[in-house]
Amino acid sequence: MNSGTLFIVATPIGNLDDFSTRGRNVLTAVSVIAAEDTRVTRKLLSTFGIKTPLLSLHEYNETGRSAELLSRLQKGEDIALVSDAGTPLISDPGFELVRACHQNGLSVTPVPGPSALIAALCIAGLPTDRFVFEGFLPNRQAARKTRLQQLNMEPRTLVFYESVHRLAESLQDMADCLGADRQVVLARELTKLYETVTADSLSNLAIQVATDANARKGEAVVIVAGNSEPRTTLHDLDTVLLPLLTDLPLKQAVKLAAAISGQPKNAVYARALELQKA
Asked: What is the DSSP code (8-state) at residue 216?
């Protein structure tokens, strides 16, 4: 018996007219649809008159569910994987299932379509020839700032997803760690009725979002310009930091190293902590 195919199907991120004919046909034809939240997907299927059975696949059941779906694929069933919106596996579940399919010689086929990541990038007006997708930053501020400090010298455009509940705090942390004047674009509610795209400096946008409740609603993508300053290599910075850390207190060593290297204190401090631990 021939084995089945796993179809990775993109669904609309807002505007239902973006749902491709191929995507609808695949969801109609497969044996079952694995969905991040069956309640959300059921509404979409109902809109298009699709009656294919659903089962859940999310971060809490992915390991067990993947084994079940793998068995069904091996028996010849075709299966579709969808997320709540957009392209599956982009900051959404599904990695374990796709990897298991490859490990077992099963076919995996993409059915491309909407993606908030790509939609935001193409309208941001920032360089897109090279970019870094960071997904969601850590929930806790200390961990979030640590990650942002690590990204401070990244020259490529930075792309983040962010919950509206943390958007104001994250933008302020970005301004603190990446630079108040760094250019940023906030793309919110893309393809939906209240779609907004705002371009400004990190400091200005952080204030705007903190003071405007409407700017903290819906789905948000944050695109930040990469660091355009000449990049000091880790080796160059270490050459300055190591002797200073040997003879001076941490804060004084960081202050001097930042002045010598021209790098932000936050980035130098983070590197100094790494060197001390090592």
From this structure: G
Half-sphere exposure of 275 (CA within 13 A, CB side): 21
134: number of Cβ within 10 Å: 18
Which ranges in the chain belong to alpha helices (H)? 21-29, 38-47, 62-74, 95-103, 116-123, 141-150, 167-178, 202-211, 234-247, 250-261, 265-277
Separation CA 30–CA 53 (nearest Å): 9
What does residue 30 show for φ and ψ, rounded to 5 degrees? -70, 165
Residue 232 confidence (pLDDT): 54
Predicted confidence (pLDDT) per residue in 7-23, tens digit: 999 999 999 999 999 99
Nearest-angstrom CA–CA distance, 137 and 156: 17
Biggest alpha carbon distance in the chain?
72
pLDDT tens by residue, 209-248: 999 998 888 889 999 999 987 555 556 788 888 999 988 9
